[in-house]
Amino acid sequence: MEELLGEFIAETRETLEPLAGEIVAWESDPSDRARLDSIFRFVHTVKGSCGFLDLPRLEKLSHAAESALAEVRTGDRTPDRKLVNAVLAIIDRIGEYVEALAAGETYPEGGDDALILALEDNEIVAPEPTPAAVAQQQSAPRAPARSIRLPVELLDRMMAGVSDMVLARNELSRRLRERGGDAIVDTAFERLSACVAEMRESITRTRMQRIDGLFSALPRMVRDLSAELHKQVHLIIDGGDVELDREMIEMIRDPLTHIVRNSIDHGIEGAADRAATGKPAIGTLRVDARQSGNQILIEIADDGRGIDDEKLLAKALAAGLVTRERAPRMDRQERLELIFAAGLSTAQAVTAISGRGVGMDVVRANVERIGGTVEIDTNLGRGTRLTLRVPMTLTIIPALTFAVGAELFAIPRGAVDEIVRSYGGSVEVETVGSAPVARIRGERVPVVDLAKLLGVPSHVPAGRSILVVVRASSGERYALSVDSVQDHEELVVKPAAPAIMATGVYAGTTLPDNGRPMLLIDPAGVAQVAGVRAPDAAIPARAEAEEARVETVPTLLFRACDHAVRAIRLSLVERIEDVAASAIARVGGRLRLSHDGRILPLFGCDAAMPDKDGRVRVLLLGDGTTEIAHAIGEVIDIHALAPDFLPAVEPGPIAGVMLVGEIQVELVDCFWLFGQAGVAALPPGRPLCVLDGSDPWMRDILRPIVEQAGYRVGWNGEGDEAAAVAILSVDKAPAAPLPAASVIRLRATADETAASAGSIYRYDRHGLIAALAAAQGRR
Amino acid sequence: MDDLKLIARIAGQEVALSADAVESVVEIDAITPVPLAATHIAGLAALRSRVLTIVDTYAALDLGRSPRDGVIQAIVVTIDNHLYGLMVDEVVDVAAIIGDPQPLHVGLARGWAGAALGLVEHQDRALLLLDPARIVAGPLAAAA
Questions:
Q1: Residue A246: is its pLDDT beyond 60?
Q2: Do A499 and B40 touch (CB under 8 A)?
Q3: Any bridge partners for residue A640, and if so which?
Q4: pLDDT surpasses 60 at A158
């Protein structure tokens, strides 16, 4: 509030000064429309600010003057000497009042009514200014102005000037180095450099502003809106001290306002509805800002009813925004993104606050115009979170520069975790399917070949690249394969032209010291374009490697076609899709799905049971070689669950039963399904590998690897066929001895200890496959 | 009304651009390519401390690619607060051309038609008046 008041005082003082001239001019010619307009604007602005700042006396005065002037503007009243005098008296009073505010004094009571009365269109003679006002005028010691207002263009010009200066300094530095040492010149140059650097920093700071200024208007807005809608909303604001470019703050003001309005209007339910669903009567709206690399993240989260993506799709279909053909191919996120489509409103009824179908599309357009993004995340019945990511442009960010082909690129230093050589001892790059994956100290990280992604020729032979391990602000962690790393530099990043931002992989442009423009890579954009997924779903091995004690496997819970709740290991789920029921047919003795030109065996139901739109939801499962489909009713959730489960009585589509919360859930046995699919049936000639069947990790995670390596898997204690190889864990002694020609021992920790000498780390896939291959060769 | 027009040659044709849109004319020696960008984005170049997005006008007008040998002349324009350099064969002249552009009655190739605002007359010749913003928007936007 303090800050706003200060701003109000500065602004009013500033407008009053030129206004003095206008008033005099208006006095001499009351019919001058332009003068009248500027005086009207002044009192109008003052009135608006006063309402917000809770200054009732000023508000009353300015309101009276505004009404009188409005009558003049509409021609209902002709300005006469008396009116001009009265308006002038009020403007004087506003000035005195503001000075009193600035000095922190209380302006003497009284006299206002007389001034207002003088405005009335009647014959009452206006009283002379009260003595109090006169006294104030004479005594008010005007506090010296502590701040000035500058046009942003001037700051921009200063910034450009300083950048030019830095370039000139660098040029000079190069020349000096070529000439060779002269200690006196060098010292003088050092001083110059320090001055330039300091100046650059302070000018950058002049453009930065705390986001507080943007957030301070929210409490009032939330209060008014919730009162109007008869809802109770608790607003939590966090991160107001985050700084960003002041122009950027202006650009996100409208989008933020709109999102907050939407949340209260559509998101948060009325108290009765909330109580009915077991939520606290008071809704919570959380607005949170934080810095992440060169981006500012602003999150607006409510605990309201969430957004129903199916409903959204239905609306979009009805509005003709999505074609019938496209609709079934859209995944959940794509359906949610429809909220940003122009002309789509999810509100049941159009309200005065929002819901006219203009809004979210404008929000996204505005945010994208400044190089930002809007993301939406919602949980039906539990709330919605919108994340605005905006760049902190015109700031100097530390960056790492690297070469790909003939070009240099930069990446924000904050996003870089580590830099490794792809051919170093501790790193190996293997190919999984078509995608390269690097193993760095036992951790698997997807590799994005930047040269390939950008379509530029790489200058180093395959396998000799440098891996820059980055963590994108959206959570993905991956290794960027580049030719060579150049330098750490401080770069001034500016937004790139829309045509360049449209590629999605750049965060902006920068002009490094060599004077050749360079592109700044956006780690999150590259992840998206390259299709790298966030680690929680993509690489379960990592989470387990870090917390060896609490092992969990990401598991998808779904409601099956027979309405039972079942679970499936997420690592095997490639996609969730809605397919047309007509694509499912009983052919060749079983249900099959025709999908994308392939025929996949379909499990999970006895006959296609389409929903009202004639569609069936299926999980597409793959083990790398075989693909099968599994019909489901609906997806419930994804849980990280312990690998343990109670095995089923006999082998079948259900591997066993596990406990999720309080509910018994059947775990689908994907390997049995793959086996049934016929394609994955193992030829009998394969050597046998015996595993400890009592160890769920071995059953669930190790088995596919062993089978891929060309073995049949058997369990210890079943049958007495001599096995070619046995795999046992160092830490967990098997229940029964494993008779085998050779034994592979696995340890749970990455570090080799004396007790586990000669063993292989259990997530060292490469080492394990090599050992299995060696055992096969020895036979 | 400002009647000054910049006359430049693109693909052998003399064309006019309204001079108030033009900030300056520069010579570019090095262009940093922008992989994955639309074809008419030739790359980036530095204009003192500022970065110019260089537009390949040939590509923007659906005429193939601009020649890239020797020193390249570019017309600097500001559109939506971004600075662009439009590659031209040569800047010929700056001239005051009186009168509003005449509507086009000739059938133009799609690329030219997308960027043209009309015809203006200069020294008894008809010149196409091009809109820099439409050139910057590129061939796709112009065709839409």
A1: yes
A2: yes
A3: A554
A4: yes
Name the residue range of residue A522's domain.
403-534
Give residue B7's pLDDT: 92
Residue A703: the pLDDT is 77
HSE, CB side, 13 Å, CA atoms: give it for residue A498: 15
Read off the pLDDT of each residue in A188-204 and give the average, rounded to a whole number.
Answer: 85
SS3 A490: strand
Per-residue DSSP letters for A70-98? HHHHHTSS---HHHHHHHHHHHHHHHHHH
A671 with A643, same domain? yes
H/E element holding A715? Answer: strand A712-715
For CA atoms A157, A162, A167, A168, the dihedral sign is positive
pLDDT digits (tens, 9 = 90+) for A102-125: 777 777 777 778 778 777 766 544
pLDDT tens, position by position, A418-447: 888 877 667 788 887 777 888 877 778 889
The beta strands (E) that lie in A327-415 are given as: 373-379, 383-391, 396-404, 407-412
Note whether A768 and A658 are same-domain residues: no
Beta strands A208-210; A243-245: pairing state: antiparallel
* Co-location of A410 and A341 in the same domain: no
Pairwise CB contact (< 8 Å): A517 & B32 = yes
Q: Do B46 and A517 touch (CB under 8 A)?
A: yes
Residues A184 and A243 in one domain: no
On the question of pLDDT at A328 being above 70, the answer is: yes
Helix ranges restricted to H, A425-550: 450-454, 498-501, 523-530, 535-538, 540-546
* Chain segment A37-53, per-residue pLDDT in tens: 888 888 887 777 777 77
DSSP state of A611: -
H or E element: which one contains B25? strand B22-28
pLDDT confidence bin for B142, thresholds 50/70/90: very low
Burial class (CB in 10 A: 0-12, 13-18, 19+), A657: middle
Dihedral sign computed on CA atoms, order A693, A697, A700, A702:
negative
Read off the amino acid at residue A576: I
Across the range A256-268, mean pLDDT stands at: 86
Q: Mean pLDDT, chain A, as a whole number?
A: 76
**Total-model pTM:** 0.45
Token pair listed for A659: 């406990």
CA distance B7 to chain A (A): 25
The ipTM is: 0.88
The structure tokens listed for A167 are 């370039």
Confidence of residue A370 (pLDDT cuts 50, 70, 90): low
Q: What is the arithmetic mean of pLDDT over B110-138?
A: 87
**DSSP helix/strand/coil, A580:** strand
Report pLDDT for B9: 92
Strand order across the beta sheet in which B72-79 lies = B22-28, B72-79, B82-88, B50-55, B41-47
Q: For residues A579 and A595, is the Cβ–Cβ distance under 8 A? A: yes
Contact A500 B41 (CB under 8 A): yes
CA distance B142 to B62: 10
Cα end-to-end span (Å), chain B = 30
In a domain, residue A131? The reply is yes
Based on the fold, state whether residues A433 and A576 are members of the same structural domain. Answer: no
Q: Where do the domains of chain B lie, and which CATH numbers do they carry?
A: 4-143 (2.40.50.180)
Q: Does residue A397 lie within any of the structural domains?
A: no
Q: Are residues A452 and A507 in the same domain?
A: yes
A352: pLDDT confidence band, cut at 50, 70 and 90?
Answer: very low
On the question of pLDDT at B16 being above 80, the answer is yes
Backbone dihedral angles phi then psi of residue A59, each to the nearest 5 degrees: -65, -45
Chain B residues with CB-CB distance to A under 8 A? 30, 32-38, 40-41, 44-46, 48-53, 80, 82, 84, 136, 138
Residues A737, A600 within the same domain: no
Contacts of B51 in chain A (CB under 8 A): 494, 496, 509-511, 517
